[in-house]
Design a protein that fits this description.
32% of the residues lie in helices and 16% in strands. By secondary structure, the protein is of the alpha/beta class. The strands form seven sheets. Strands 3, 7, 8, 9, 10, 11, 15, 16 and 19 form a nine-stranded mixed sheet that branches. A two-stranded antiparallel sheet has the order 1-2. A hairpin with a 6-residue loop joins strand 17 and strand 18.
Length: 484
């Protein structure tokens, strides 16, 4: 409201507007209209300057002192057979080929027990048994915490994949990586907090596995391809000055739209993503460029392997180390579906020997190189590496050379980031049917990972649909026996 008697034509002289125009005065409305974009950008710059910036998190940062500043999640989609990798079952060898019968296990009428075609050997000072499928990972066994007592709820790939990633069996919920970046923010404001190093195939359950769900969209995974151009349309088409002007114009229009709707989180998240993409242009290509890595490092990761897929998986593992070095909070690596079907690369219902050997050949060397490289650089203590699959495989077979889905007992392992090294935790029964000792659920795994990252799984919540929702819901416990 203008003071009584004021003349709108009488303005102070010499006022300079952006762009160099000089006029003789500004009304309050003109001033706010002219400066609105600047106010928004100033506020955004202040937020982004905060290293703990985490979108809409009320109190970003750890709840307690973390042992893991970063997480690398090695997702083995399809269902790795536990009794063929990290959980030896001599009893299966004794019963191999006999009719599969067990009081607490329902097997089909023509199913038979199937012993492992691979030999196991104890390794390291811990003496943990690893099959000959993983000769390189076996050399790192004293850095691993092997969990033989995992249990899930579903023998179906999509639901089990989504459960492993989000703690739910339906889509629409944030993934583990999204929750961690929401709670902790990013260490480098010029890079995304959550990066998906795509192996070349989307696992069952689709992009819901890597979604931010109802969290701000800035916490969803940024996907980087293994082959070809890592991220399309990242290189700018214009000079920086022109690109910045275009971006400012888009942001101004988006902010006007958001204000007209009383504030819109989706629009604000889009603006944050615009800004992040703008800043990523100069740094991310350099981080993903492996040309300056020495020949020995490349060889250790398998970048000289004969098999194309092994070279690509090695590339992604080496990129994971570089991304962690650059301050990315959460990195996930998926596998290509080479020896599996459309349901995941480790999904060998038939030809178990060929499939598991092929997949192990692709992943064994790069995974071991990642663990040993992080350790050699002094990074493993603060980086948690998680090797996990959605479920295991049956100890019996219906066709003589394959195993089916099995959710009641399987194996994962952790390394670094405060996990107790040289440990074998839990057990399945003598045939590998059920987890029977120190049973660990997906919610327990999530609670433990969050704890190592400095987050309390019961306190890390987001208000949605009228209630405070967490990754673990009302479930889960921190498995302190896994913490060193």
């Amino acid at each position: 409201m203008r003071p009584q008697g004021a003349n709108p034509q009488q303005r102070p002289s010499g006022t300079r507007l952006p762009g160099g125009r000089t006029i003789h005065g500004l009304s309050r409305r003109e001033l706010l209209s002219t400066m609105s974009t600047g106010f928004g950008m100033t506020a955004l710059s202040a937020l982004m300057a905060d290293p703990a910036y985490a979108g809409l998190a009320a109190t970003p940062g750890p709840h307690h002192t973390p042992t893991a500043k970063n997480v690398v999640f090695l997702f083995m989609s399809g269902g790795v057979s536990h009794m063929d990798t990290f959980d030896p079952k001599p009893k299966l060898a004794e019963l191999n080929g006999t009719k599969a019968t067990l009081d607490n296990y329902t097997a089909g009428p023509n199913r038979k027990w199937l012993g492992s075609p691979w030999k196991f050997k104890q390794h390291g000072q811990s003496g943990a048994a690893v099959s000959e499928l993983f000769p390189q990972v076996a050399t790192c066994v004293d850095d691993l915490a092997i969990v033989r007592s995992m249990k899930s709820d579903f023998p179906l790939h999509p639901r089990s994949n989504i459960k492993l990633h989000t703690g739910r069996n339906v889509g629409g919920y944030p993934s583990l990586g999204s929750w961690i970046t929401y709670g902790l923010g990013t260490e480098n404001r010029d890079l995304p907090g959550y990066v998906l190093l795509d192996g070349g195939a989307v696992p069952p359950g689709g992009v819901e596995n890597f979604s931010s769900g109802f969290l701000p969209a800035s916490h969803q995974a940024t996907s980087v391809a293994a082959d070809g151009v890592p991220i399309h349309n990242l290189a700018p088409a214009d000079m920086d000055l022109v690109q910045r002007a275009k971006l400012d114009a888009i942001i101004e229009q988006d902010r006007l739209l958001a204000r007209s709707q009383g504030g819109d989180d989706a629009i604000e998240s889009a603006i944050r993503n615009y800004e992040l993409a703008y800043r990523m242009q100069s740094l991310l290509p350099d981080v993903l460029d492996l040309s300056r890595e020495n020949a020995e490092t490349k060889r250790n990761y398998g970048l000289e392997a004969e098999e194309r897929e092994a070279r690509l998986y090695g590339t992604q593992c080496l990129r994971a180390r570089r991304l962690i070095e650059a301050g990315v909070r959460f990195v996930e690596i998926t596998c290509a579906e080479v020896y599996g079907g459309n349901n995941g690369t480790w999904d060998q219902h038939t030809d178990l020997k060929k499939g598991h050997e092929g997949n192990a050949r692709i992943t064994d060397r790069p995974v071991a190189a990642l663990v040993s490289d992080l350790k050699a650089r002094g990074m493993l203590d603060e980086t948690l590496v998680v090797w996990a699959t959605e479920f295991g495989r049956t100890p019996d077979t219906g066709n003589g050379d394959g195993r089916d889905h099995h959710e009641t007992g399987f194996t994962i392992w952790l390394a670094g980031g405060g996990a107790r090294n040289g440990l074998v935790y839990g057990n399945t029964d003598e045939l590998g049917v059920h987890a029977v000792e120190d049973v660990m659920t997906v919610h327990d795994l999530h609670a433990t990972i969050l704890h190592l990252a400095g987050l309390d799984h019961e306190r890390l919540t987001y208000r949605f649909g009228g209630r405070d929702i967490s990754l673990t819901d009302v479930h889960g416990r921190v498995v302190h026996d896994l913490i060193g």
